[in-house]
Amino acid sequence: MATNFPPPTLPAGFSRDRQQGDFLKESFPDDFAWGSATSSYQIEGAHDADGKGPSVWDTFSHEPGRVECNHNGDVACDHYNHLEEDVQLIKNLGLKHYRFSISWCRILPTGDPSNVNQKGIDFYNRLLDCLAEAGISAMVTIYHWDMPQALGDKGGWMNAEIVDLFKEFARICFEQFGGKVKQWLTLNEPMVFALLGYGFGMHHPGQRDFFGKGCRVIHHLILAHAKVYHLYEASFKEKQNGRVGIALCSTWNEPRNPNSEEDRQAAERAMRVAMGWFAWPIFKTGDYPEEVKTGVAAVCEKNGIKSTLPEFTKEEMRLNKGTADFLGWNYYTTSLVWSPSEAEKVGPTPFSQVAQITGSVDPEWKRGKCMFFHVVPWGIRNMANWLTKTFPSVDIYITENGYSDEGQLDDSDRVDFFRNHLNELLKAIRLDGARVKGYYAWSLMDNFEWSNGYNVRFGMHHVDFTDPKRRRTKKASADFYKHLVQSNGFKENE
């Protein structure tokens, strides 16, 4: 069950009445994009079929103890063999938009751009054609964490050569699929990937050196994103007329004591670190925000080491700046933020490394089998408004938002999660003027949830992972979401 997180006193600028006022009975904008989302490694399976090479997650998940119950994504939802059925699930929900990712190693088995796997190309073309026939527009993520193992063996995102190798992979995607895709995301949650993989050791490659290796990885990710954006602008945009963005992830960070200037500053600093580490170079200055620079330097000095944050050259800053046509934002929860002085009194937490920079710390943070985040619907409204204020000319798409449980069909908690979050989002759009243009529910179906394996489920459709045919069954949340989409909001008589 969810760990309910009672709302604290709100920060200056947000009245409690506006935050938690009456349920808003109104429609979303007529052109609001309703969709759902998945990712390749989490649903496709067919890990060694039709010329696909091994990914870093194929290898990582087979190392004992890396994933709960030693689960892996070898079969996952077997989407590779259930493509048409899964497109029908999307259509049955009444959705006109679907976000999925392309497996790098299904297209380039070894990461070598000269060794293209045609059967991988054929699979994604078949998926795109099937979506088009159903009247569904594709938002495609180029990288959702499943790099070819051959590139991982050479250092992966730690190796500076990966920047141009990623650009060449993207070039193949644009060449092969660009005529059928109008919205691209270069990277999914790059900060989460760097933090969990190089800070907490929970994801591939399982390391705990965020202020060393993690900072370098982030540097390469930003440069790779920028090069892909410029590639599309120079060689594909005129003919294909698509847009390129990036999917970032951040909680809303709430000052524990809104009357404390230190807590308010810590909350803003936490936002500028969690979201700004990538968003500032891309949407603002081309460079890291000062909060990141000074924060990393202070932590390194405290630990007696040289600052590990790489510097962008002036040319790289020019390359980075303005390299996204829209912002994808994944939202799940809200955190309370203390000032650094108060955070130190709390002691170690799962977020200690980031807390050293921001002061962000939540001692009540729990990770359980059923749920591993607090449910804070009003956080999505606050965050949507902060993004609109901070990046005023940028269109925002919520590219993930969802609720985890153990997979029950009568998922009333997920229904409540969607209802309350989407109503707060509606308030942000209609009452506050937030520039949110679409919403992609995570997820279409239960899937392989990385280090949690199949024990945590986000799907609106249940998948029987004991059934060789991976039978899908819709949950109550699927019916709720379908009705909401059909109504395009919340009607007066409901």
Automatic annotation (TrEMBL):
Keyword match Iron-sulfur: no
GO MF terms held by the record: beta-glucosidase activity
GO biological process: carbohydrate metabolic process
Alphabetically ordered keywords of this record: Glycoprotein, Glycosidase, Hydrolase
Pfam families with a match to the protein in the record: Glyco_hydro_1 (PF00232)
Complexes and interactors: Homodimer.
Family under the similarity heading: Belongs to the glycosyl hydrolase 1 family.
Name of the featured protein: Beta-glucosidase
Source taxonomy: Eukaryota, Metazoa, Spiralia, Lophotrochozoa, Annelida
